[in-house]
Amino acid sequence: GFLEHSPMRNIKAPRLPKVGKGFLSEEDRNKLLELCPPTTFMGARDAAIIWLFWTTGMRLRECATIVKIYGEGSK
């Protein structure tokens, strides 16, 4: 038949320590920027993305969904 009470009702789940996401240090940011050659399109793009993350706290998904919006001049 059915149990009247769950045998698990008095068992508590173990507390796990909260692990925050790491924050990029200024030194690490500079190391990443050194890897972006400013003379190429992709290097300039990557440097801009790193600065965007660093200065705004933007998440990767937020950056990936940026859409360029044109004004009425490009109808």
TrEMBL record:
TM helices/strands, residue ranges: none
Annotated keywords: DNA recombination
InterPro entries: DNA_brk_join_enz, Integrase-like_cat_sf
Gene3D superfamilies, per the entry: Intergrase catalytic core
Gene Ontology biological process terms, A to Z: DNA integration; DNA recombination
Gene Ontology terms, MF aspect: DNA binding
Name listed for the protein in its UniProt record: Tyr recombinase domain-containing protein
